[in-house]
Design brief:
3-stranded mixed beta sheet; mainly alpha; single chain; GMP Synthetase, Chain A, domain 3; elongated
Amino acid sequence: MESSTLFLLVAAVVGVLAGYVVRHLQLQAARRRNQEEADRIVTQAKEEAKSIELRAKNEALDTRQRVEVDIDRKRKDLSREDDRLRSRRGELDARTEKLEQRDQELSRKQTSLDTRSTEIEELRGEIVKKLETVSSMKRDEARKVLMDEVEREARGDMARIMRQIEGEAKEEGDKRARNIIAMAIQRVASEHAGEITTSVVALPSDEMKGRIIGRNGRNIRSFEQAAGVDVIVDDTPEAVTISSFDPVRREVARRTLEKLVLDGRIHPASIEKELQKQRDEVDKAIAEAGEQAVYDAGVPGLHKEIIKTLGRLKYRTSYGQNQLHHAVESSKIAAMIAAELGANIDIAKAGGLLHDLGKALDANVEGTHAAIGADLAKRHGVNPIVVNAIASHHHEAEQESVEAIIVEAADAISGSRPGARRESLEQYIKRIKALEDLANSYKGVTQSYALQAGREVRIIVRPEDIDDLESARMARDIAKKIEETMQYPGQIKVTVLRETRATEFAK
């Protein structure tokens, strides 16, 4: 048993050594073949160079021999006809001069041949160097070098073609879009009231503040708990402020406090009674506002719950723009654009009116206002194309119709037109800084500037790091990143600038 095991071990070792020797011999044979191939190429190049050089020398020698034979023949003729040529010395001088010129030409040809021989020698040296380089480079590496060079040339050609196509499409599209948008804005005229998230209630005197607060703060606590708002009593003369994130709740509280101040009787029982009364009044006003908006926009057949929810937008603002007025205006603009483009006007009007429906519920429901509004519209039997327009007007869903694109355009026009929206100085500065920081976070960017109140950002890149095609990709990536991460009114133009400068000094 031990001898068989030992025999197996010896056999295994011998097998490994034999495999190693065979592998080593194969590698040596491969190296010899590679070396022989390189030597053959070098030898062939040398032989070709020698052959060229030999042919050039033979040609020069033949030319020289022919010239010498010709000269000898003429000299013999001159010796035989010496007497006759004396009378024609002038002609002989002329012929001699021609022969000298011919000798000069032969000398120049010889010089040219020598130069050619030098160039051939240099070419031979370059060929040898290239062959040496190729012999030390792997096949994959050589292919990668070639592919990189082809890719660089292709990228440059592709960038030029893309710029040409985009330029032509943009020129034609901009011309058509400007006409349609200008026509839609001119035909739609609406008024907007700037509102904020707090309401101020005027008081007949500062003594009323004490009655609103009540003994030990009883009245103001009861009012805040019942109404769900914050009542701010500060040093502002003859006024108190009502604050709440819910605009409907804030409106109910404002109306209730005004009635209580007029009545003069402020206590917990009267507060609850008046609150309930004003809730009914506000609900009625909301329903009437929704019905009026549906009538103004010309969108009949909507469910009562949708009309009531739409009416709640009367007390909702975005950047100071009343959202119910914005919805009606968007509906009219969408109808104008759809009529010009030959799209479905009724669907465009409905989509424009209902696109921000979710903003009336987003404080109490999880999700974005586009998704919330689309879900509410779907539950109450709204046309699926309109539902898609609501869900996709901020690109949270894929746009499935041209009417969805029209609704998005109408929303942008209504929100970004001059005077439609406003924002605080602090929010404006934060948005501008966030815009520039986002642009500066990309590799290759040297500087970025937010212009036109944050409606445009210009980005300067290093030309040695970013080529023409990459600059176009960067502009698209930054625009998409802005859409995904920032909140802003209207639209933001992204411009990437790539400049190359060459400077020399004349001395």
